[in-house]
Design brief:
24 strands, globular, alpha/beta, eight-stranded parallel beta barrel, 731 residues, 22 helices
């Protein structure tokens, strides 16, 4: 085993081993090490290359003199590490701090008078590490630090952060609240165009206010692929900084009201018949929805140009301000969408930028710039759609505040992005494009999981001053009162599957956890946004401890919360700093769990890796039904006539579902989330992990339209049950 290879992996952050869910130790192989280093463009083919790469890595922080970014908690001394040649040690140096609010600080020092650390020879002369201690900074924010060293000015971002995430007033002093989660695309209504939209979301906020809930949670709203409406997984987005504009409420756009052509088309019997069919379909017809909205939205953009941009109206000025504020990120995103649509129209095999002709793969190439100049109006169209989405989301946040909801919109941030999308095209240097994120082997996936999402390269992310991470948080917190971070463990370590290898040959990579957590707290406070960390699975104690200290809510699902003997956890034993829910999009609904629908589906689709696991699941589910009834009996919640008998399986009545919600709502957990499918008594789950087209993932609609909710017994019963346990009560 190469010593240089091991040292290089340690510096880069490739962990030497991990323990799986059974506690078994897995050592990272040399083949995996080399493949992962190669995915980061670090030469390591043989001992000589490893040695050269190691030397370059060891020297890199010395040659840049200052770190690329410094992240520090507020009101604590700040330590800045400098690397300088010995010949500069006696020179007087100046530092200047420009705070975000315009306040300035400055001082002088002589390196020779500072505390020293390591020493090394670089290019034939001695260098030393010096530690400069700066005064504490009370004001959090994105500041700039400059140093004049030997006649040259060097600078770096200084990010000063709070040590707690935002806590809404509705959760203060131990108070508890609740909300509803929906897969927005699956919401039925008599007014939408075949999938749930922001207009439906406004009605859901009204529903929350009427029933004493504090929030409505939704699936990730991230941008997908307009050219390919069948790429539908919200967890495999093109970009997490922008919005899937299929969620636009077209008829609520200001231009629609006075666009005669658009209104005439929508009023046509054929168009109305199409909308009726889209609404009536059992599954979301994404292509049909995209076709309908894609026929009207360009007309609204044309109207906007003619009425507003041509006359520089107040609305035009608001759009220009949006373009300016969103800056280069918006421009590149819209440019990508225009390019992808253009190229795909000429060649249907061009699914994303990695297979585009080489001239188009670089956002700054002459070919791309020429395209941008020639198709400026088309690019502006995609910017216009994002502006509309921004406006409708802003209206939703304002509505939540007007209704007095304690939290409002609860959004979801996916763990990564699709390889061929706008985010990787705009910042391809930040991603290990040939590696994929995933997770190690478990019962269902003995070869591990490969999610197909290219990970951020940790050191490149740091060199970028964490700008992409900051942008993703801001985009998803801006209009949300709460944000769930999918796979929050990825802030500390992320499982990488090497190029060309199976999921069980991967390794964990270390990420700058303290820095990312600090930035998370800063953006949380700035956006007044509660943070929930999805911490299911094998999570290092350090992650849970630090998340707790920062006020991040843990994510606890009823199915997985057990006592040592396998019994369901008693309500009083749930942690207070947590969100609790019965189920989620990747798991069976309560009805599906009770009837074993998920087990039957896995058996039907041959997803069980072994017959033993299938049989164990069947036996375990039978035992779980009994355990659930016992748990309800202990709390005095069993409906009349229902007996906790291991030999009988009672029907899962609405009263029994209500009892389960009573049970969970009693927990001291700050948040309790009711899943819409459970509130409506649905059987099918939104997504079946391990499948793509074998199961209608991300396409299922709720069985009951929004207009029927006020009179639907399931809805009223569960809302009343939860409100009784939660409203105006402390944990």
């Amino acid at each position: 085993m190469s010593h240089a290879l091991l040292q290089l992996c340690e510096l880069v952050g490739i962990l030497p081993e991990y323990h799986d869910i059974w506690g078994k130790r897995h050592q990272t192989s040399d083949d995996s090490r080399r493949a992962l280093l190669g995915a980061m463009a670090i030469a390591c083919a043989d001992e000589a290359e490893c040695t050269r790469s190691l030397r370059a890595w060891q020297e890199a922080p010395w040659r840049r003199r200052l770190p690329p970014v410094l992240v520090a908690p507020a009101a604590t001394p700040i330590t800045l590490t400098l690397h300088l040649p010995e010949r500069e040690a006696d020179q007087v140096c100046t530092w200047r701090l420009s705070q975000e609010d315009g306040h300035r600080m400055h001082g002088q020092f002589t390196p020779a008078s500072l505390e020293t650390g390591e020493a090394r020879e670089l290019d034939g002369e001695p260098w030393h590490e010096y530690r400069l201690y700066l005064p504490p900074i009370a004001d959090t924010g994105y500041h700039r630090l400059e140093l004049d060293l030997a006649g040259t000015t060097h600078s770096l971002p200084l990010i000063v952060h709070p040590t707690r995430c935002h806590q809404p007033a509705c959760l203060a002093e131990g108070r508890r609240t609740w909300g509803l989660s929906v897969q927005l695309y699956g919401v039925r209504s008599q007014r939408n165009w075949g999938m749930g939209d922001f207009g439906d979301l406004a009605h859901l906020l009204d529903w929350a206010a009427q029933h004493g809930a504090s929030l409505i949670g939704v699936n990730p709203l991230h941008a997908l692929y307009p050219h390919n409406p069948l790429h539908i997984s919200p967890y495999s987005p093109s970009s997490r900084q922008f919005v899937n504009t299929l969620y636009l409420d077209v008829e609520a756009v200001a231009e629609f009201a006075d666009c005669t052509e658009a209104k005439a088309i929508v009023a046509e019997p054929a168009f109305q018949a199409k909308l009726h069919a889209l609404r009536a379909a059992e599954l979301v017809d994404y292509s049909g929805v995209a076709e309908a909205k894609g026929r009207i939205l360009p007309l609204l953009h044309h109207r906007f140009r003619a009425v507003h941009l041509a006359h520089d109206t107040a609305r035009a000025q608001a759009f220009r301000a949006f373009q300016q504020q969103a800056g280069e990120d918006l421009r590149r995103f819209a440019l990508y969408q225009a390019l992808q649509a253009h190229l795909h129209a000429h060649d249907g095999n061009l699914w994303g930028w990695p297979v585009w002709p080489a001239a188009w793969r670089d956002p700054q190439s002459p070919a791309v710039q020429a395209f941008a100049a020639e198709h400026a109006e088309r690019i502006e169209y995609f910017e216009y759609l994002q502006w509309l989405a921004e406006d409708q989301l802003a209206q939703l946040r304002a509505k939540a505040e007007q209704l007095g909801l304690g939290i409002g919109l609860y959004q979801d941030l996916a763990v990564g992005v699709d390889k061929g999308g706008a985010e990787t095209w705009a910042h391809h240097e930040l991603f290990a494009l040939e590696a994929r994120t995933g997770c190690p082997p478990d019962d269902f996936n003995p070869r591990g999981q490969d999610w197909g999402l290219p990970p951020w390269i940790p050191h490149r992310l740091r060199e970028a001053g964490y700008a992409p991470f900051i942008a993703a948080l801001r985009a998803n917190m801006r209009h949300a009162g709460a944000l769930r971070l999918d796979h929050v463990m990825g802030l500390m370590r992320l499982y990488w599957v090497p190029p060309g290898m199976q999921g069980d040959q991967g390794a964990y990579l270390r990420y700058p956890f303290a820095d990312l957590l600090g930035i998370l707290a800063l953006e949380s406070q700035r956006n007044q946004c509660l943070v929930i960390g999805e911490d299911l699975g094998t999570v290092p104690d350090e992650v849970r401890h630090d998340l707790y200290d920062y006020g991040v809510l843990s994510y606890r699902l009823f199915y997985f919360e057990r006592e040592q003997d396998g019994a369901f956890r008693a309500p009083g034993n749930f942690p207070a700093q947590a969100l609790v829910a019965a189920s989620t999009h990747d798991l069976a609904t309560l009805k599906g769990f009770w009837l074993g629908k998920d087990i039957a589906l896995r058996e039907q689709l041959q997803l069980y890796p072994t017959e033993h696991l299938r049989e164990a699941q069947i036996a375990g589910r039978q035992a779980d039904r009994w355990r659930l009834l016992q748990a309800l009996e202990r709390e005095g919640l069993l409906p009349a006539g229902v007996i906790a008998n291991p030999d009988t399986v009672p029907e899962l009545t609405p009263e029994l579902i209500q009892a389960i919600h009573h049970y969970l709502a009693r927990s001291p957990a700050r948040l309790f989330i009711v899943q819409a499918e459970d509130m409506l008594g649905e059987l099918e789950q939104a997504n079946l992990p391990g499948t793509v087209d074998e199961h209608p993932n991300w396409r299922r609609k709720l069985g009951v339209g929004l207009e029927e909710w006020p009179h639907y017994a399931h809805t009223l019963g569960i809302a009343q049950a939860v409100r009784t346990e939660r409203q105006d009560k402390v944990g």
